[in-house]
Amino acid sequence: MNPVNLKQLAQELNLSVSTVSRALSDSYEISATTKAKVQQLARQLGYEPNPYASSLRRQKSKTIGVVIPEVANNFFSLAINGIEEVARENNYHVLIYLTHDDAQQEATIVQHFASGRVDGILASLAGETQDFSHFSKLQERHIPMVFFDRVCEEFATAKITTDDYRSGYQATQHLLDAGCRHIAHLLISDHLSIGQKRLQGYLDALQAHGLTPDPALLLRGTSNKDRNQTLIQELLQQNPAIDGIFASVETLAMSSYLACRHLGRRIPEDVKIISFSNLEIADLLDPPLTTIAQPAYEMGREAARILFKSILKNRPILPTQSQELKSTLIQRKSTATT
Amino acid sequence: MNPVNLKQLAQELNLSVSTVSRALSDSYEISATTKAKVQQLARQLGYEPNPYASSLRRQKSKTIGVVIPEVANNFFSLAINGIEEVARENNYHVLIYLTHDDAQQEATIVQHFASGRVDGILASLAGETQDFSHFSKLQERHIPMVFFDRVCEEFATAKITTDDYRSGYQATQHLLDAGCRHIAHLLISDHLSIGQKRLQGYLDALQAHGLTPDPALLLRGTSNKDRNQTLIQELLQQNPAIDGIFASVETLAMSSYLACRHLGRRIPEDVKIISFSNLEIADLLDPPLTTIAQPAYEMGREAARILFKSILKNRPILPTQSQELKSTLIQRKSTATT
DNA sequence: TTGTACGCGTTATCAT
DNA sequence: ATGATAACGCGTACAA
User: Which parts of the sequence belong to the HTH lacI-type domain (chains A, B) (predicted)?
Assistant: First the structure.
C-alpha cells in the first residue's frame, strides 16, 4: 500500500488536483458538498499531505532545530520539554542534534542548517566552542536563532539566560555565611560566558568579604566523570584547608560527593557543597544538596516562544527580546552549619 | 542573502544544472577539472542541497522519528543518546516526539508518519495505549518500525526489551532473601507488557516462596508525583505490615522514599526498597538505592541499528531480529539486612 | 563529458 | 466553483 497523494484522490473523485487541494485546506471557493466528499475520502484512505512537497513549495519546513550538548542531563531534558510543548502548540516538528560539547560537530550541524531544513534554531553552545563563524553564516541567511543558557554574547539575537553572575555571587555568599573561608570553584569550561559570569560572581563575593581568591582553588572539569573525581580528590588533598565547594554544574557536585566520601571528608561538617543543579531529587541525596536551580523548562519554553514569534510574523529577532530568568537557591543540608 | 541552489551555481559556472548536480555527487561521468571547479564554488558560497527537494525526488527523507513518553527521564534520555549516535553515523536526522503517556497524542503523531516524513520509526509506547491501530496502519505502509522497552507484543516487528520477567522475579527474590514477607509492588500501567512481565515475576517469586500475593499490595502509579506519594503513604498506613517495596519505575521509588520519610519509616530497617532505575547517582541517595539498571543506551543503539539495517537494505524488519538485553541488579543499602 | 527534459507532490496563479 | 498550469530544487533517463 503506497502513500496516498492528491492525484489519487482527484482521480477517484473525478476532480482536479487543485480542487482537492483546496478542499482539504478548507478554501472558501469550494462548495460544501465537494469539500465533504473530498475530506471524507481523504480520511478514509488515510491521506497525509507529503510534508516535503509542501515544504518545497512553500519554502517553509514547519520544523525547528535544537542544538544542545547533551540530552542525558536534567537541565537540557527539561528545556526540551518546554521547547517541544511550544513546538506542538504551533504544529511544528523538532529536530534534535547533540554536539557532545564538541565544537567541530557543532559547526557541522549548524552549517547544515543553511540548507533550509529548519525554519529556526534553538541552541546552547558546546563548551569547547570558541569560533562562532558557523553561527554568523546562518545569521547572514536570516535564519532566526535563539540561544539559551550557554549563549553566545556576540550575536545580535535573543538570548535566554539566568542571572548567572548574581547566582554565583549568592552561592559563594551562602558558603561564606555558613562559615567557609577556603572555597573551591569547579567550572565547566573557560569559554562559556555563563561560566565566566558564575566565576566572576564567586570572585567578587570573596573579595567583598575581604578574601583574596586563590587560583589554586579553581578547577576546570573535564567530560570524564572519573577523571573529575580524581581531580577533585587531588584538589582536596593538595589544599586541605578547603571547607567549601561551589560547583558550576551538577556532575561536578556529584563527583565532589564521591571524592569527599573517598577521602573521608564529611559533608557538611568538613566541606560544604553547593551546586547549580536541576536534580529533582536533590533532597534525597546523602546529604541533601543545596542547589541553585535554573528554571530549565521555562527557559526552553521562552526561547521557543521568541523563536516562533519571529517565524510566524516573519520578523527578525532582536537582542532586546532577550530574557534573564531567575534561578533559585534552595538551601539543604550540604551547606548546613553544624 | 538567499540560500544558494544548483541553478545559481550552474549560472555562475556556465554549466547546466545537471552537470553541477552530478559534480557534487562525485559522479564518474564528470571530468576531474569541472568537479573541482564546481566543488570549490559550492564550498565558497556555502551551498547546502535543499533536503526537501532531495527528499521529494528520492522518496527518502534521511530522517527517523522517535516517539517516547518523556524526555526528562533517565532511561529515555540515555536511549536517545544511543539512537542519536547511530543516526549520526548514518547521516540521518532525528525527529523527536513526546507523547506524555497520552494515547491520543501518540495516535496523532504516529498517524502523521503516514505522510512519508520519516523513513523509519523508533517507539516506546505511552502507558495508556490500548488501541494499536495507528501503528498497524503504518505497518501496512511498510514503514519500518522498532519498538524498545515499552513494546507492543502483537506486532510483527523487532522489539528491544530487557529480561523483565526475570528481573521482576529477581527483585522480589532479593527482597525475600533480605527477610521481607509483605512486599508491595508499584507499577506504572496496567497495559504495558513490560509492566505485566515484571508483575508476573513478582507474583511467581512470591508463590515460589509459599507466599500468597495480596492484591491490596499492588499500586498503580499515576503521572502525578505528589499524588503518587500520597497513594504510597496511604498504602503503607493501611498495610502496616509492608516491609518491602518493589518499584517498577524510578519515580515511584523516589515517591516511596518521600513517603517513608514523611511517615517516619526507616529504610531499610522498616521498609526495604528496590527499583528499576537508571539513576546514575543511586549510590549517593540516602540510603543508596538498590536498583535494577536497564542498559538504556545500548537499547537505543540496538533499536536504531536494526532500524537502519532495514532502511539501508530496504528489507522488512523481522520479529526474529528482536533482542532481549540483560538488566543488572545492583545491591545497595536500601535493601540491606540490619 | 555535458546538456535537455521530466517528475517527485504540493500550492498558487490564472483562466473558465 | 472548478480546472489547467507552472514552479519550488533536485536527480536521473535520455540525447548529443
Answer: 4-58
